[in-house]
Design brief:
The chain is α/β, with parallel strands linked by helices. It is about 30% helix and about 25% strand. The protein has two domains: about 1-155 and about 325-360, Alpha-Beta Complex (Quinone Oxidoreductase, Chain A, domain 1); about 160-305, 3-Layer(aba) Sandwich (Rossmann fold). The protein is built from twelve helices and 17 strands.
Length: about 350
């Protein structure tokens, strides 16, 4: 038997290939992929200018992965706490298991690898990404059982929601009643809006642009108190006015490549507040950044990274609870054969399409 997968062989070049299904031992397993979420990182990877990590090829893309455990060893099932046939969400980061961070369970594995991004098909068995009918479950992978009733295209939303729970809640320590601003209403930013509300924020403001009209609507549907169109008004002035002139307690920059958002976040943050930087800028410098502003306002600046195990579990519970209409974020789903079109939809290059979250269904 074989698996069918899409391989990124060079920037903007996806090729369909077949791979033999691997033999499985006591410590590893095989997943039948049901959905692979596409985010902005996938688009950057497809174009060959991935920020933060090297853009390697040939690789099977896809790092937001949900599927059913098709085969696994007894030791693996016990370690993962799942059974054959269970629907699971795959943690994309493969930890080494040997460094000091892994020994303590902390973030920041020194030799981490990432499904769909950093492991090429040259490493057996080749099935290291979600744009495939099957995924190899390495011995060091973490799995999360998906609650009953949560469909695959909705379950993959757990990743951006988990990011939001951590970035807008746990990481800055958002207290009840706080004012929270999110720059960027993409799937990560919408996850942050939910994360702020779960933390008990008293005022949640989401900032976007005119092109983000549907996403700003979605923010309000999720419970955001205010949205700001940065193309129609000065977002810093608007936020200060909504926060009674003092600025926001917590500001999260969830924009991708928008360097101006960093200085806007600093300017709209209240004295003594917290700025969370979560959006990668492709290693670009930040024009107009005045560090004195940070010093004089006594700001705390935090780099967000990604999610952690606890936030993923919390996100899955939240999806199952129905507390927020998160399923409305799952706007598009395509077969593997239409992956390049799906990537263009995510990049908002297809006229008439208004994507929020897009998935491939192998």
């Amino acid at each position: 038997m074989t698996a069918r997968a899409l391989v990124l062989v060079a920037p903007t070049r996806l090729e369909e290939r077949e791979f033999p299904l691997p033999a499985i031992g006591d410590a590893d397993g095989l997943l039948r992929v049901e959905a692979a979420g596409i985010c902005g990182t996938d688009v950057q990877q497809y174009r060959g200018r991935l920020g933060g990590v090297p853009c390697v090829t040939p690789v099977i893309p896809g790092h937001e992965i949900v599927g059913r455990v098709e085969r696994a060893g007894a030791d693996a099932l016990l370690r993962w706490g799942v059974a054959i046939g269970d629907r699971v969400l795959v943690e994309e980061v493969l930890r080494c298991g040997d460094c000091s961070a892994c020994a303590t369970g902390a973030r920041g594995c020194e030799r981490m690898r990432v499904y769909g991004l950093t492991v090429t098909i040259d490493e057996p068995p080749g099935l290291w990404g979600g744009y495939s009918t099957h995924l190899y479950l390495a011995p060091t992978v973490d799995l999360h059982r998906v609650p009953d009733g949560v469909e695959p295209a909705v379950a993959v939303l757990a990743m951006p929601v988990a990011n939001g729970l951590r970035w807008a809640g746990a990481l800055p320590g958002t207290p009840p009643g706080a004012s929270v601003v999110i720059l960027g209403p993409g799937q990560q930013g919408l996850g942050c809006a939910v994360g702020a509300l779960v933390a008990g924020a008293g005022t949640v403001i989401v900032v976007g642009r005119a092109i983000d009209h549907r996403r700003l609507e979605m923010a309000r549907e999720l419970g955001a108190h205010h949205t700001v169109d940065a193309d129609a008004t000065d977002p810093v002035a608007a936020v200060r006015e909504l926060c009674h002139g003092s600025g926001a307690d917590v500001v999260i920059d969830a924009t991708a490549e928008a360097v101006k958002a960093v200085t806007q976040a600093i300017d709209m943050c209240a004295t003594g507040g917290t700025v969370v930087l979560a959006g990668l800028k492709g290693s670009a410098p930040i024009p107009g950044l005045v560090s004195d502003t940070i010093v004089l306002k006594g700001l705390r600046i935090l780099g967000a990274g990604g999610h952690d195990h606890a936030s993923v579990d919390a996100a899955l519970r939240l999806l199952a609870s129905g507390r927020f209409p998160l399923e409305r974020m799952a706007t598009h789903a395509y077969p593997l054969a239409e992956a390049e079109h799906a990537l263009r939809v995510v990049a908002r290059e297809v006229k008439g399409e208004k994507p929020i979250h897009v998935s491939l269904i192998p």
